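Run folding on both entries below.
>entry_1
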Amino acid sequence: MANRDNSSRETQSLSRHETSVCHLLYVTLAHVRGPAEAELRRLELTLPQFSCMSNLSTAPGLSGADLARKASVSPQAMDRLLAGLHSRGLVMRSLRRTFGHTLPATLTDRGEELLRKAESALRTVDDCVMLGLSAREVDQLARLLAAVRTATVP
């Protein structure tokens, strides 16, 4: 009986907010974040560290400021994050400044290896989250989320 009540409350709650994409994204992130963080914790990584490493994998040589913008954190927070990854031998920062004060960062071989393990671990979370969706729906969801991510927000 309790499950039925919770289920109907969730349905009623969703009905009230079904037109609020921001609300749905927030609730979905809250639902997925715990399992994702647990998987990454086993590898001694956090979500921000994973995000940083993932960005460096696709765009080697980004500066701390560029990485901070992509992660929506302050440059100071990104510098601390990069320093931690560097001390673990996962990221290498150039000793030469390229433009102004920027120190480009790249993943080390060890960083690339850990990133592959993290991506594999997060795929298990993806599989659980997408359970019940067809391959077509998963593809559509991925395209829609990518479109939302690149949209200009005032």
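>entry_2
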Amino acid sequence: MVGMLLLETLLNEWKVATTADLVSAGVDKQLIYLIAQTGRIRRVRKGLWAAADTEPAICVALSLGGRLACVSASRYWSGLASSSGEKVHVSVTRGASRLASRQAEAVVHWSRFPLAGNEFAVALEVAREQMTRCVPHERYP
């Protein structure tokens, strides 16, 4: 029970954490998997976990080894939920290895170097520039 409370507290604060971070904070590795089976946390990719209420678009981006980009990042910085039915725009540095089988889930914005922003999304200024090249103007004036 203490381990479960610790795990949920950490993920509520961080939203996303690696298995190594959770274990080093005192959470038993087996407990992580048990709680994931209840749906209270979810596995984003191998070794990466998210709180159940983490925005789905963020989980898609992280699962692909990237961050939200373009329209998706703009929504993130505006505090808006992702729009259902639209693909998630993801910023990925060249050479990312997680894309081969899952690229159809997202619109991928490739970059040679990591772009400004936080661990979940590129900076709003970067997102706006990406939108000028990606999104038809009549859709998002």
